[in-house]
Amino acid sequence: MKCPGDDKATTDSSRAGNEDHDDEFEMRWFYVSMGPGFVVGFWAVFGPLIINRSWRRAYFRFLDEIKDRVMVVITVNVARLQKKCKGERRQHGT
Hints:
transmembrane, membrane, mainly alpha, receptor, transmembrane helix
């Protein structure tokens, strides 16, 4: 005896197997394309820096300025935190 949903179950399971195969195929190509994509992206950024001296100097000057700004922010925040902790110790100590 056949139930009303029996035909749908067989087609759904065959469709699920086909989707798994498609997903596997897509993932394989995703990983295959990662290598050339990384190489192209790497050389798109670092190639001009190797070739063009003025760009290289500007880039490293920019990185140096960013490093200095981050160090100033860290130093100021650490000093603020230390000052705040000393103030709390004095309040609790008396």
